[in-house]
Amino acid sequence: MNDDLCRLSAVEQLSALRRRELSAVELMRAHLDRIDRHNPRVNAIATLVPERALADAKAADDRLAAGEEPGPLHGLPVAHKDLHLTKGIRTTFGSPALAGFVPDEDDLVVERLRAAGAITIGKTNTPEFGAGSHTFNPVFGTTRNPYDLTRSAGGSSGGAAAALAAGFQPIADGSDMGGSLRNPASFCNVVGLRPSPGRVPGYPSALGFARLGVQGPMARTVADTALTLSVLAGPDDRSPIALTDPGETFRRPLERDLTGLRVAWSPDLGGAVPVERGVLEVLTPQVKLFERLGCVVERDCPDFTGADEVFRTLRAWQFEQSFGELVDREPDSVKPALRRNVEQGRALTGPDLGRAEALRTQLYHRVREFFTRYDVLLLPVCQVLPFDAGQEYPASVDGVPQEDYLGWMRSCYFVSTVGNPALSVPGGFTDGGLPVGLQIVGPPRADFFVLQVGYAFEQATGYGRRAPALS
């Protein structure tokens, strides 16, 4: 019975809580029991605070019994990404340098989830400082894929994605610079949305105007992802790039007739990236499904020339700004890859940054013009299938050597450079049972539209309903 509760969608759990067919304490105990049984092998939850979670669940039940209006996420358990400041709970960033750090404030996303009634159960695992799309670090070890415990869960929101797939929580928060919401969602057969920059305001942040990295929602269904976004989104004066649309707009019905929708499909981003055959064997047939849904599908792709230089330059600059002082202070406490990223940032010149911004502007306009001809762009989320959890990163993709741990993430980070909303939705399985995600990219700031397209695909396929066989 407990496992059945944990596999319900967030919307279903909320309905039972509000009708008082289920208490927040009962729901919390069910999730804590499942974490106790399965997390030792999956390693998705890095820090757990069960006593606090149960006390908060009891308080939530008391408020409901007293007649208080429940929040939109009333009673839902959630563990926050270990890159997000969480007041009173150890937040390590996956690094020995911060292994004992306990913040005295919340990130804005944590603040908003709590204000909406979600109950914190702990923290989800992440690569050290989010550097990479495979979740392992020297503090907590490696997070494993619930669909195959020998495989990677992706990253950097890998703990969040694995926790969703394993039934440890119904919703999650994450972040995405080069694919960190989308890659783990693809690997773990859940839904992850990289929202438009400013859709989810970021605070605190030393780089408040930066638009390369964003925070956003994950869940097991598109509807649950939209619900979580409705809480995370909305204006906030503490973020200088916050969009003004109210979060409640994402609680509108997601049903949409896709008849006549102009869809572009690119299996390899216009020949710009290699993609494993196993990924394409799963995703290529999905194009026919969009045709059956009434869409007009063509093979086409924007010109992503310059995207690699833009991403790597701006990312290196942001890493130096964010972590340079820490690397100087404790160079032996951070992983070599992070030190190299900081060194790359320090080697940049003013003209390097200026050229990257100019290239990014040109790229933005080429993609913007592309979306005057098409309504949506379909891409693979990941260029590879979930790989061996013992690897740091795939050394090659379809026989093409990768020079570093970023190379295999281009199918996501090319999209990051222009800031268009992008959704990872379950797109099928290999014959061996490994999940593969489909990336749905929309026009600038069309986050709700992207969710609608993803919802139609999800309802037509049902791939997300296939749970991992954890015993």
How is this structure best described in words?
The strands form five sheets. An eight-stranded mixed sheet has the order 8-10-9-16-17-13-11-12, with helices on both faces. Strands 1-3-2 form a three-stranded mixed sheet. The radius of gyration is 21 Å and the shape is globular. It contains 15 helices and 17 strands. It is α+β, with helices and mostly antiparallel strands and 471 residues long. Helices cover 37% and strands 16% of the residues. It has one domain: Amidase signature (AS) domain (Amidase signature (AS) enzymes, Alpha-Beta Complex), CATH 3.90.1300. Helix 3 runs antiparallel to helix 4 (50-65), helix 6 packs parallel to helix 7 (182-188) and helix 11 packs across helix 12 (336-346).
What can be said about this structure in brief?
With 471 residues, this protein is α+β, with helices and mostly antiparallel strands.
